[in-house]
Amino acid sequence: MRALRVALVTSRVPEEPDTDLAPLTASLSKVGIEGVALPWDEPVEWHHFDAVLLESPWDYPRRRDAFLAWARQVAARSTLCNPFPVVEWNSDKRYLADLAADGVPIVPSTWTAPGQTWMAPTRGEYVVKPAVSCSAKDTARYRPGEQARARRHAAGLLKRGRTVLTQPYQHAVDTHGELSLIYIDGNYSHAVSRSALLKPGAEAQDGLLATVTITPRSPDMLERDCADAVVKAVTSRFGSLLYARIDFVRGSDGAPLLMECEVIEPSLFLAHSDTAADDLAAALQRRLTRGAAD
Fold it and tell me: Taking the complete model, does pTM exceed 0.85, yes or no?
């Protein structure tokens, strides 16, 4: 049987350290799969690979239309992980409205599209970010009385044709952090806690705003149940996923609220688990060998 080859899709100019690539490549090798890291916008014969895994194409928000056109073409000729329909859906944070409609408790969210007038919240601190973004790029936290600064931020995004997402700032993240639960092939794998990223008074930046502390953590039953419900909701829409990361923060009443459901190119924090990289490689091998048998 010939060896399997998988493209591990990255960015041409990495903007952040990719700590998943090395352990994933090593684990793929253990199960007889050659992992080849390649930027998504390189002129590559993607159909020569048995699968194309979106590992860290973290520059896609800059060129979402081009990225989706590329992903659609790849999906038509190879196995794209995760599949194209979920990539298209998850690449715009308006997907949160769909999950809220499915009964998932999300951080309250308001979207302002280009051509509409952005209005600052009248109470409390809040966050302004583009609906298409990752790693807190072009994202900032505002306090009451900073409406003028927030308005300039939102106007700049809208002028560039970007939909603006506005959310109340969840102060629990300052004390308890943000919880990320990782799922592999639909099954819970591990979780980490991440420290707060947004600082009061800091301007939105085109890149990572601060160093984040990452700590392994065991979720409680309520957090597990909420994350399971998110995975179930996404699976019911798109079928089973190879990987997913569910990010929660505690609301003012202590209940978990969904911040993000990352199913395109999330950091899976593989170095913070003894088995996750091997589990991911094994899950991919099962999918590819099952497909070959079919």
Answer: yes
